[in-house]
Amino acid sequence: MKNFKIKIVLLLGLLFAFSCEEYLDIAPEAEIDITDVFATFRTSQGFVEEMYNLVVEYGTSGHSFQDYTFGDDTFRTGQFSGAVDRGQLNNWVTQRFAYFGKNTHQNRPGDSNNNQARRRPRIWRGSMTGIRKANIVLANQDLMEGLSTEEKNVILGQAYFFRAFFHNEIMKFWGRFPHITEVFEGAITIQRPETYKEVALSVNEDYKKAIELLPVNWDNETYGQATLGNNAGRVTKGAAYAFQGKNLLWAASPLMFFNNQPGIDTYTYDTELASMAAEAFAEVLKLAQAGEYSLAQNMEDYKKVLWEVPRNRWPGLAPEARELIFAGSGGSSVGQTIAFMAAGIPRPIGQSASGNDAATHNFIYNNFGMANGLSIEDDLSGAYGPTLYDPTKPFDNRDPRFDAWIFSDRDVISTRGGVQPQNRVAQLWDDGSGNSGSHRGAGNVSRTGYMFKKFYPEINGQYHVQRGNNIIRRFTGMRIHMRLTDVYLMYAEALHVAKGATTPSNGFALTAEQAINTLRDRAGIPNVHPAIVADNIKFMDELRRERAVELSYEAHRWMDIRRWGVAHEDKYKMKTGLNFDKDWTFFEEFLLVERVCEYPKHYWLPFEANQTQFYEGFPQNPGW
After folding, report:
1. Is the dihedral of CA 600, 604, 609, 612 positive or negative?
2. Which of 44, 143, 156, 541 has its CA 20 to 30 A from that of 84?
3. pLDDT digits (tens, 9 = 90+) for 50-108
4. How far, in Å, CA of 575 to CA of 572, rounded?
5. Which 3 state secondary structure label does DSSP give 406?
């Protein structure tokens, strides 16, 4: 333990998210002795609080452009999305408009106590700062003499969780990274691990300690009474189990299994790690079974997870849809929340300050299937029953989630009298010859023939329109990081890898097939076809398609297609739109961009050059 001075600021952590009791009643920018910091639970928790605001909430942590989806799911020409399509991943260093970026949109390091998420540290700086803060807590636990055993446990539990979580944030984007478990002073000479698995297993030890020390629910603990009813964002045993499983599943995935070597096969996982991941997810499902979380049971309740939450409230907490497990605190800026909710909607309708992302035809065609529960490819094959897909009527007979989350041409937006005529119905046609509807074309309208509305408010079938049905300011929008649906999907994937589609885990009596069918039941589509379940590869494809639909536009897609080792394949490189005329006499797919993606170069962000020049033990990522 080092006896040094430490700077602490007044407005820490969750104060912006919950308006909870201030933990540190001292002057801003005050310097106090480390022994005073950890003398009481109040001051110890005050030090921990800042780590919550270092969690980057992807949906609201960029600039107003809301540049947060970088997979094959959306298209935009500028900002970091455009750089990813061009293969210019080193753009992250100077990028100021996405949640990546060395600095904020103001070209500043970021202030963790700012009430706007976009003005807090981004992924790299925020995660490195969080790791250091966690290590300071753990290095000074002997000073916590004034805390009860329960209070000390929850302080340490949070520190172990955040140390693991922030390592995972770096690992998701930059790859294998040393597990830093001490407060460095002076030169750093820690070696870069040879494999992703090595560091993931080390980080797993942090999650195990966090699980042991954290509560199931803060509201049920004596130390949680000071913030009773406002503890939704605090880390819990369930969150630690969920991220433990995610850390292990990511390490088991093909990209990490092959460790950047040639010959990558998208269906080859580390089965031992996948089995460990499935058991961690099983513990979350047990908590859900006990009533700690609840899966939305139908598409109407699902709205309470995605957008139907009163303004300035945490989403995903309604009893019938209590899906929230953990997320960043987001921003209290109304503008940022609105920009996220309207990210897929062109300005003529939503009139957000944000430029919109266009939902791509390739992603929708390949993943949003038919009402019979089949992908379009499987439906057209005729191998699983009568065919529903008609290429002359491509919007008919689709999976109900297509209608719920995607605007296609002629969909009713709002019929209220104050809505401008051109915005009452989606006009997304473009005949490719210069003739197009009012919501189609270049600029801040759709380039693809679709708009995504997953987080976009509607009341009684009347969607938000700035002029005539201005309702968006009433709602919050979801938080991105971990919710129960994601756990079901990861549990199914990990369990299928470890034991197949029809064998339950050791810890929970639910098979991978049953987990996926639970989500399909909610959407109102049939169970996975038995012939697909019986084929290991086909069932894995179906698991991935289900994940693509359920987590669409939630910033998971880019990580998924990289960890599965498929991002360099044509199916994921070709971003397309759909051209058709006003009368629907033809429908024609066209290429928007062919992404530049080589394996393994474009699977990892390059480290900033000066980060790899301290010493020989920290090599740059391949190809950079």
Report:
1. negative
2. 541
3. 999 999 999 988 887 788 999 999 999 988 999 999 999 999 999 888 999 889 988 99
4. 7
5. strand
For residue 240 the two structure tokens come to: 């630690």
Cα-Cα-Cα-Cα dihedral sign, residues 164, 169, 175, 178: negative
Residue 509 main-chain phi, psi, to 5 deg: -85, 60
Tell me, what DSSP letter sits at residue 562?
Answer: H
CB burial of residue 462 (10 Å; 0-12, 13-18, 19+): middle
Q: Give the span between the Cα atoms of 15 and 332, in whole angstroms.
A: 10
C-alpha 267: how far from chain center: 23
Residue 22 pLDDT exceeds 50: no
User: How far, in Å, CA of 398 to CA of 421, rounded?
Assistant: 27
Summarize pLDDT for 495-539 with one digit per residue, the tens.
999 999 999 999 999 999 999 999 999 999 999 999 999 999 999
Distance CA 532, CA 592 (A): 32
Torsion of CA 17, 23, 29, 30, to 10 degrees: 180
Amino acid at 603: Y
Helix axes 123-139, 149-174, angle to 10 degrees: 150
* Whether pLDDT at 252 is above 70: yes
Model confidence band, residue 334 (pLDDT cutoffs 50, 70, 90): confident
Number of H helices, E strands in the chain: 22, 12
184 contact partners, CB below 8 Å, separation of at least 6: 132
Over residues 294-317, the pLDDT tens digits come to 999 999 999 999 999 998 888 889
* 439, amino acid identity: H
> Torsion over CA of 511, 513, 514 and 520, rounded to 10 degrees?
150
SS3 325: strand
- C-alpha atoms less than 13 angstroms from C-alpha of 312 in its C-beta half-sphere: 8
Provide the token pair at 225: 């009474």
Residue 19 pLDDT > 60, yes or no?
Answer: no
Q: Which residues of 431-452 are buried (b: 16+ CB within 10 A; e: fewer)?
A: beeeebbbbbeeebbbbbbbbb
Nearest to 478 by CA among 335, 352, 330, 357: 330
pLDDT of residue 3: 44
Burial (Cβ within 10 Å: 0-12, 13-18, ≥19) of residue 389: buried
Token code pair at residue 154: 């929850």
CA quadruple 178, 179, 184, 189: dihedral sign: negative
Q: What secondary structure, in 3-state letters, does 480-523 show? A: CEEEHHHHHHHHHHHHHHHHCCCCCCCCCCCCHHHHHHHHHHHH
Quote the pTM value. Answer: 0.95
Nearest alpha carbon to residue 269 among 374, 351, 214, 196: 196
In single-letter form, the type of residue at position 56 comes to V
What distances in angstroms separate CA 9 from CA 22, 32, 64, 114, 331, one per listed residue? 11, 11, 27, 11, 18
Q: What is the rounded average pLDDT for all residues in the chain?
A: 92
pLDDT at position 614 is 64
Alpha-carbon span 561 to 569, nearest angstrom: 10
Residue 402 is classified by DSSP as H
Going through 422-517 in order, the beta strands assigned E by DSSP cover 451-452, 458-459, 462-463, 481-483
CA quadruple 33, 34, 38, 43: dihedral positive or negative?
Answer: positive
Distance CA 586, CA 431 (A): 9
